[in-house]
């Protein structure tokens, strides 16, 4: 496939078409762009060859398995984060004057990316997923009606402050380190994690939300939320993680969703195989 990377557009038409070939291979172009590419390919053997090699590359990427990082590695990293957090200055939480209705406020900017790039990026995520998978971008404000500032109230204050401006990576790491220790089943923060799993554009953030929700599996909202989230996910790492967690929870409500996913033609082979394995373990 060296020709794919060394290809120099032979004509001005080629120079305009080459950037569109990846989107054409993944059927991700507009109707006008698709017609433009197809008209050019009819008389350009060079671009035809490059399109063939690009499709072979994407097929190889689709066949890659997406192994999960060991939970022990995540736990060790969380312990290191907790130690770093202990050395941070203590935040002063003002006493709330009135109850605030819990709500979710998204604070990330949409970043649309072509599907083929997301699939290719998932291979790179395997190398750093154990670390980046812990990044959590929570959104929302929690109920702060309690007069005594306990640990849950402090976390709610941090989450509320984070909605006023885009949270930095270090801020999100601090919040995800606090969540397992301070959030309890029944806490409004559980709903924030559920919304994050369903709405955050970053696969790494959604992976972290999966992990946090599994640790809070005693909450009756967690099981149904994981089942409902699975058909809405398109990132293979998130899909496989959800399947493994649902199997670990022995949640038979996931069987119909897994059956549909195992027959879903646009899902990666590794995801379909994982869904079939999950069905066998749950039935």
UniProtKB/TrEMBL annotation:
Gene3D superfamilies: Anti-sigma factor, zinc-finger domain (1.10.10.1320), Leucine-rich Repeat Variant (1.25.10.10). Pfam families: HEAT_2, zf-HC2. It comes from the Bacteria. Residues 14-48 form the Putative zinc-finger domain. InterPro entries: Anti_sigma_zinc_sf, ARM-like, ARM-type_fold, Znf_put. This is HEAT repeat domain-containing protein.
């Amino acid at each position: 496939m060296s020709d794919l990377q060394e290809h120099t557009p032979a004509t001005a038409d080629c120079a305009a078409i080459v950037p569109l070939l990846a989107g054409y291979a993944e059927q991700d172009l507009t109707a006008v762009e698709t017609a433009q590419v197809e008209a050019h390919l009819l008389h350009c053997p060079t671009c035809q060859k490059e399109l063939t090699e690009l499709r072979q590359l994407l097929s190889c990427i689709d066949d890659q398995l997406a192994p999960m990082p060991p939970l022990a590695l995540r736990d060790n990293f969380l312990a290191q984060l907790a130690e770093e957090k202990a050395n941070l200055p203590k935040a002063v939480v003002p006493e709330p004057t009135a109850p605030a209705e819990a709500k979710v406020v998204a604070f990330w900017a949409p970043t649309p990316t072509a599907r083929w790039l997301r699939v290719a990026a998932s291979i790179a995520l395997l190398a750093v997923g154990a670390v980046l998978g812990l990044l959590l971008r929570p959104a929302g404000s929690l109920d702060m009606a309690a007069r005594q500032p306990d640990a849950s109230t402090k976390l709610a204050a941090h989450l509320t402050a984070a909605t006023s401006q885009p949270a930095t990576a270090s801020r999100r790491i601090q919040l995800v380190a606090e969540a397992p220790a301070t959030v309890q089943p029944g806490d409004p923060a559980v709903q924030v994690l559920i919304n994050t799993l369903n709405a955050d554009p970053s696969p790494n953030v959604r992976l972290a939300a999966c992990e946090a929700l599994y640790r809070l599996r005693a909450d009756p909202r967690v099981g149904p939320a994981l089942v409902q989230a699975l058909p809405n996910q398109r990132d293979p790492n998130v899909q496989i993680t959800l399947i493994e967690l649902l199997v670990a929870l022995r949640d038979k409500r996931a069987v119909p969703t897994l059956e549909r996913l195992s027959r879903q033609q646009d899902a990666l082979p590794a995801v379909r195989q994982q869904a079939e394995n999950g069905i066998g373990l749950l039935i």
